[in-house]
Amino acid sequence: MSKRVESLEDVTIRFAGDSGDGMQLVGGELANTSALIGNDIGVLPDYPAEIRAPIGTIPGVSGYQLHISSTDIHTPGEKYDSLIAMNPAALKTNLENLKPNGILIVNSDSFKSRNLQLARYESNPLEDGSLDKYQCFAVDMTDLTRKALRELELGNKVVDRCKNFFALGMVFWLYNRTMDHAVSLIKSKFAKKPELVEANLLALKAGAAYCEMTEQFINSYEVKPAKLKPGIYRNITGNSAIALGFIAAANRSKLSLFLGSYPITPASDILHDLSKYKHFGVRTFQAEDEIAAVCSAVGAAYNGALALTTTSGPGLALKGEAIGLAIMTELPMVIVNVQRGGPSTGLPTKTEQADLMQAFYGRNGESPLPIIAASKSSDCFESAYEACRIAIKYMTPVILLTDGYIANGAEPWSVPRVEDLAEIKVTYAKDPETYMPFLRDEKTLARPWAIPGTPGLEHRVGGLEKEADTGNVSYDVRNHEYMTKMRAKKVDNIANDIPPIEIDGDQEGELLVVGWGSTFGATKTAVDKKRQEGKSVSSIHIRYLNPLPNDLGDILKRFKKILVPEINSGQFVNILRAKYLVPAIPQNKVQGLPFFSSEIEEKIDELLGDA
Amino acid sequence: MSKRVESLEDVTIRFAGDSGDGMQLVGGELANTSALIGNDIGVLPDYPAEIRAPIGTIPGVSGYQLHISSTDIHTPGEKYDSLIAMNPAALKTNLENLKPNGILIVNSDSFKSRNLQLARYESNPLEDGSLDKYQCFAVDMTDLTRKALRELELGNKVVDRCKNFFALGMVFWLYNRTMDHAVSLIKSKFAKKPELVEANLLALKAGAAYCEMTEQFINSYEVKPAKLKPGIYRNITGNSAIALGFIAAANRSKLSLFLGSYPITPASDILHDLSKYKHFGVRTFQAEDEIAAVCSAVGAAYNGALALTTTSGPGLALKGEAIGLAIMTELPMVIVNVQRGGPSTGLPTKTEQADLMQAFYGRNGESPLPIIAASKSSDCFESAYEACRIAIKYMTPVILLTDGYIANGAEPWSVPRVEDLAEIKVTYAKDPETYMPFLRDEKTLARPWAIPGTPGLEHRVGGLEKEADTGNVSYDVRNHEYMTKMRAKKVDNIANDIPPIEIDGDQEGELLVVGWGSTFGATKTAVDKKRQEGKSVSSIHIRYLNPLPNDLGDILKRFKKILVPEINSGQFVNILRAKYLVPAIPQNKVQGLPFFSSEIEEKIDELLGDA
Amino acid sequence: MATTVKEASNGDTQLKLTKKDFESDQEVRWCPGCGDYSILAQTQRSLPDLNIPKEKYVFVSGIGCSSRFPYYMDTYGFHTIHGRAPAIASGIKITNPDLSVWVITGDGDALSIGGNHFIHLLRRNLDINVILFNNKIYGLTKGQYSPTSEYGKVTKSSPFGSVDHPFNPASVAIGSGATFVARTMDRDPAHMQAIIKRASAHKGTSFVEVFQNCNIFNDGAWSKYTEKSTKQDNVVLLEHGKPLVFGTDKDKGIRLNGSTPEVVSLTNGKYSEADLLVHNENDTDSTHAFILSHMMDNPNLPAPIGIFRSLEKTCYENALNEQIDAAKEKFGEPDLQALLDAGDTWEVK
Amino acid sequence: MATTVKEASNGDTQLKLTKKDFESDQEVRWCPGCGDYSILAQTQRSLPDLNIPKEKYVFVSGIGCSSRFPYYMDTYGFHTIHGRAPAIASGIKITNPDLSVWVITGDGDALSIGGNHFIHLLRRNLDINVILFNNKIYGLTKGQYSPTSEYGKVTKSSPFGSVDHPFNPASVAIGSGATFVARTMDRDPAHMQAIIKRASAHKGTSFVEVFQNCNIFNDGAWSKYTEKSTKQDNVVLLEHGKPLVFGTDKDKGIRLNGSTPEVVSLTNGKYSEADLLVHNENDTDSTHAFILSHMMDNPNLPAPIGIFRSLEKTCYENALNEQIDAAKEKFGEPDLQALLDAGDTWEVK
Ligand SMILES: Cc1ncc(C[n+]2csc(CCOP(=O)(O)OP(=O)(O)O)c2C)c(N)n1
Ligand SMILES: Cc1ncc(C[n+]2csc(CCOP(=O)(O)OP(=O)(O)O)c2C)c(N)n1
Ligand code: SF4
Ligand code: SF4
Ligand SMILES: [Mg+2]
Ligand SMILES: [Mg+2]
């Protein structure tokens, strides 16, 4: 039978199975292979808060969604073209978003009564006709994998764990992907257990062969490489990109890098990543808690290091008091908050943007600091780098916001050339004659950085209010007001040191959609589409949330309506309303998931009228 | 010589001396005596952050300011009519605000070269003519006290510590106060050391006698009783009133009272006070830190107690994560934050209103809770009571804001009759048939309170998102959105359960001054005065900061201009601007001091034009 | 959720509860093979014997795999925030001393972020039972080293080996003034049940360290002590009043050399049982328990299992309630109006 | 602020610093008579002998009366937030092991809010010196009981007497794995100076508890140990290698009965010095130090003063730096571009 290959502009695929089924692994591998082929990709890993919930249950389902495209894309897709469901629970929780007539591959071996029951199915969906509106392929993957691996004489338990690669093999055949990268992944991942290398390779090939041999699949598909900007690319998650951004900033500023951190989902990978780079002189300190983590960073900053701390929402809540100390002592550091679903422990593995106000105000007293948010996984590098630049130049703690979605999501990243990175100049104070701990630089209003070990600059800092210039403790009431204003002014002035806003679309019009953080992808996709439909809608994306860009007020006034989509109950929208007195309209989604571009499209239609 | 008594409407007196000079004691005594006479009073204690800074230095100065009036007043006064300065440093730091031709009583014994030097005086102000514009009385208090106490044969050290009562005796004479209360104070305070009773009584009388005998003082003054609303009055500080408010709420709701707290200035006195009332069944737990303090309260709340925690700004920062847990588990408790100067350790003994945004947003995720602020010392009772009522009725943590000024300040309080207090009804769940942990009351949206020990209601709560009704852990995305909205709605609905705003002045006009918290006194005084001058200005005071009163939006729109004075850099003003899109104007003072009414008057003039 | 308690009193009546009565309707969500299952089962098996009505139990936990425990118990339960369970449990116990309060925690939860609350609970000696699931790893966050991980441990956050010296949880507890300290393991159900019951019986804070296997991120961390083949030579079972004897053939013992314990052979004629350290749970001096607690830190010594220390001492909540009772006695029925009217008052007419 | 260091090196050259070199220009703001003055003076007197250039000192404190200390030292100093000094000091030491880092703290600061950071610092054994000013009270907040206040203590927050059992700071430290533990007092300047110098010399975390009098809120809390008339009978001075002898006429000694210390008379002929417990600072087993640490809890025993334990053990920052050096050795000069380009890359033209 000759293979009919249909060419698609883009395709969305979702793997879903038990937490132990290895869905993240094969999903990630399909992403890497596609990126290497030259597709643009967007991914959304989605896994439970338990390490491994009981097998076969709904809470135990782990999903990995991947959007592969031949054009520039910005989201992990919405409705899937294909769903691979390894058990009934995976089918149950994911079917809703499979497109009508979409491809549904299920591991039919697992549709036994116990599993059906665990997934709360009354009858077997493979038999009751409920899947008729899809192209459903029920494949006995367990059985087929066992057969394919029979020769190896491995236990069933080991063999059954290979069926994820069987499924991947099928998808590879279906979407005409090369197996080269998957082969080398298997070889390196199981290097210490050669029998597993062979087993998984066999499973992978068996999956592809199954599609080739059976006559079930009439079509196969391809997605041509995307036309990305020229450059060297690699696939990267937001958390890895942040780690690299910090190393780059330390390297360029010639500061030593210090991270004080306490593990927390979904931020831990930054700690894991940075722990590896000891030869870059990176010092990571796994502290006893978040307070010790941020405090150790304050100590490192006092000592002249490029100091970091990384966390997620509940951890940021704990760090508030110490961030206040860094503000009072005017020490440079970067606090990364990878937002997750709240309040409290909330939904630890889901995404949310609900810590913006906490970043602004989660401390006692008047304690302003710069806030930056990354817009997508690949933007995390530059955002981290920029956060460091500002922290050092202005002697201030900076909060960098990302979220679970872009932290774990991956996409192609155009790897920068080191020589193109912005300069980060550091000058430690040296001269005992002119040194005063709180004598500010006229331009930046930054105080000098005098580090322990420097002869003649011995001085004391602390959390009590300090006298201008000398830095001595001062209870003088007017000095307090003056210093409060200077701390605020120093941060406000940073607005003069950031690039102007780029408007995507017309410079004025009916509607402006304002994004921040990870709403970037869905917003851009939606607005682009609506503009193509001829609607008067533009979008801007705000990386610098505090201080806001100087030109923002002007831009807002040029549009009749302003829409602010956020994965929270409406936070940034209030900042805009309070500051510019514009009737900005919130669009909110609090479902632990990023926006679908269609949701924003609908809102745009609603605001502009459907005409 | 016959005494000429001049009658004054009101008078402002300031005692200032070394931290060890006992100024707070005699200042407080003058306040109590005046209150008992029937004056309205307002006080402002003002002491250094050190327990006792080195004697004679400027940072060591402790002040106590008292406003005594025959009319209803709302502030501790501004410029003083009389200043009692016990040493050069006290003179130096306080002279600025003495009215021209005001009465200045100095302890001339302490104007020796060492003290002058410590106070950074180049020449002796008693000799260089710099005090000519005041009625200056240089009195050798140390020497006169020693002489008066000679018979007792006590050491000089002991004798010298009595000179504060000598000074008080002078002031008593000068303002024609009865000594009865002071005499009983001395008797009870020094009950264990009879020799000190005698010594201080002698000093007190000697002070008065000195004025009577010498011909220095031509005039003496009196301030007639104020015409307060009928009732039983006592003088009370904000912190004591809070403690009583809580006891009253516990008593009326028949709940047992639990306070988990960690000492911190200026909130510690609430802990001290409540620790005394063991016979009211009050359990106080001095925890190892603020986190343990709030957590113990969460545990007590889970257990069906009326749970409290008290702190100041840095402590609130530490409590954020656990407050989020109380929000997620929907447990009732009251968090008192007595605001002080920030950021960080800041100015611990000074006042500020800079934790409002922290109260709103100092936690991860979408975590709304009700916020109430007390307006003056005597209002703390009702505010505390009301915070309890709302917490219990709506099963929610409530933040109650006060500040150092009203917490330490004292004023006459019209003691309520127990039977007039609002009802606080508590119903614990009992019925295993109908019980579900998160099944909400239709009206209040509160979940049922089922306390450990109740047979058949065994259930689990926690910080993870929970399924509506059942309270089981749920990662369902739509349930999360639903629960997020329900938590917000429950808090928003409280707006239907609070009294309408009272407008002080016309119902519409040119200018509305909006106060919250301790700006009440200065705002009211200023607006009353300007209205008497015929200006079109009204004022409102907002006790319920979240949710805001339903009628607020309407009221704001009836005025052309809106002014929001705050002891911070502008916080509440932004809440109003964001919510109502009104161009409210901030008036800010960040000097660790309350507003003077004159400052608000000036601002009113500026906004309305001087005409 | 309906209670199956036969008699809702705490008196002498036998309540006749069973393991099933303590099983909630929630699916247990640990990895297959996790040691947590055994601890849950032993707890559910032990509680019926305590003859406490089930509505009087409150299980309080922090965050971690172990801290999911309360969801699986059909009692009152509170899954709180990371590290804070002791503080929340304190608020519960103080406001109702009548409850049987249990803190379920992990090595990270109790000793890393929660270290301070842990030691303060021990010193205050509230009558709360603390069960620490020690798997020497952060399970829930997928495998970083914990404060009990061994020096040099390679984990996700220590790819070059950890440079933290570990805590010995029992030593920390004794240094903090703990009145009841015990150690048991997931693989010894009978022993664990006995310890759970003793912990419950102790008035004051009971601290129980459980060797727990995390088969995903730290498999076999305790196998030396738990596997049949090696257990006898590496574990010494503590029995009150008995000398410390161990080994497959009970051929070895522990003797004090000064204050330092050492292993002696009982078969070479040099030492007999009479020379050995005799276990005394109730020693008022905490040194004996301290010696036992850190024997494990010395690779040449076996790890003691059992009750290191059990000593009566005033419980915080009892002392507090006595003060309250005394104050009520002294000042009589509280009169709110009188309280409000107290101090110097005056009347305006 | 200009340094008076004669030679800015840390070599053999004598720096010739004096007490004055360590006095800052800030007015000292403690109550007259406060024990803190003596600790400040002894520190300023001791440092010149350490021969460390003054720019290499960093004094880090939390919040409390005691924590004002750094302002008065003309060295680098950081007055941080309540309880967190050990964590901040850790960040300092890790990023520059060449500095001499000191943590100044109080009983509330170190043991109440800061308890967790304190015990974790001790277990990690960073080369930091911790001086705890123990006045058994919260001074700065005007007199509430602290974690070292005695049971039953009447204070502002415990008008009916505290129902908290106190910590013994030295026992907590030893239970947490401290490698250097010592005790001294504000009223014994010479002893304190000696201890400060030894603490500085120790590589690893040095913990020094100082009995400090707060004459305003807890006057005389230590007088039993510090007053001439009672000191001899209530304090035993620890000297390495010597038996524990004390009493006005050196007539009493401490003997171990099993592992429990007891006082014996040296004059009634029953016991001689040979029967006494001999002090060994360097005992690898921490039991000896633990016994000494909690002798004070027993009112019949004297309080030991001196160095309880001094043991070398890898310091966190050294181990970390060795890993970094080894990694650099192994992977060569860091090449940022190569790092960014690592992994699977592809080129778009
Ligand atoms: C404030 C906060 N910080 C960090 C976390 C992330 N976190 C959850 S559990 C855990 C450690 C769990 O280790 P352990 O207590 O040993 O429990 P185990 O999972 O091993 O049973 C961490 C770091 C959190 N949930 N909250
Ligand atoms: C977060 C925080 N909580 C509470 C306080 C208030 N506070 C300041 S010092 C102190 C206790 C001081 O006691 P201690 O450490 O013994 O020092 P001392 O004053 O006795 O020297 C407290 C509770 C604070 N400054 N910050
Ligand atoms: S990760 Fe480890 S501790 Fe957690 S459930 Fe799995 S096996 Fe148990
Ligand atoms: S309050 Fe006590 S500890 Fe503080 S300075 Fe005064 S005497 Fe010293
Ligand atoms: Mg663990
Ligand atoms: Mg103290």
Structure description:
The complex is a heterotetramer, with two copies of chain A (611 residues) and two copies of chain C (349 residues). Chain A has 611 residues and is of the alpha/beta class. Chain A has three domains: 4-223, Pyruvate-ferredoxin Oxidoreductase, domain 3 (3-Layer(aba) Sandwich), CATH 3.40.920; 234-420, Thiamin diphosphate (ThDP)-binding fold, Pyr/PP domains (Rossmann fold, 3-Layer(aba) Sandwich); 509-607, Rossmann fold (3-Layer(aba) Sandwich), CATH 3.40.50.920. Helices cover 36% and strands 22% of the residues of chain A. In chain A, the strands form five sheets. Chain A has a seven-stranded mixed β-sheet with strand order 11-10-12-13-15-14-20, with helices on both faces. Chain A is globular and about 85 Å long. The two termini of chain A are 49 Å apart. The mean pLDDT of chain A is 95. Chain C is α/β, with parallel strands linked by helices. Chain C has a domain at 19-226 and 314-322: Thiamin diphosphate (ThDP)-binding fold, Pyr/PP domains (Rossmann fold). Chain C has helices at residues 36-50, 85-95, 107-113, 115-124, 169-175, 189-201, 223-226, 228-234, 287-293, 316-331, 336-340, and strands at 57-61, 76-79, 100-106, 128-134, 180-185, 206-211, 235-237, 245-246, 252-257, 260-265, 303-310, 345-348. In chain C, helix 6 links the parallel strand 5 (180-185) and strand 6 (206-211). Chain C is globular, with a radius of gyration of 23 Å. Classes of the chains: A alpha/beta (611), C alpha/beta (349). Chains in contact: A-B, A-C, A-D, B-C, B-D, C-D. Chains A and D meet through helix 1, strand 9, helix 9, helix 11 and helix 12 of A and strand 1, strand 2, helix 2, helix 4 and helix 10 of D. The complex binds thiamine diphosphate (2 copies), iron/sulfur cluster (SF4) (2 copies) and magnesium ion (MG) (2 copies). One thiamine diphosphate sits between chains D (63-66, 82, 106-109, 133, 135, 137-141, 146) and B (262-264, 290, 314-315, 318, 345).
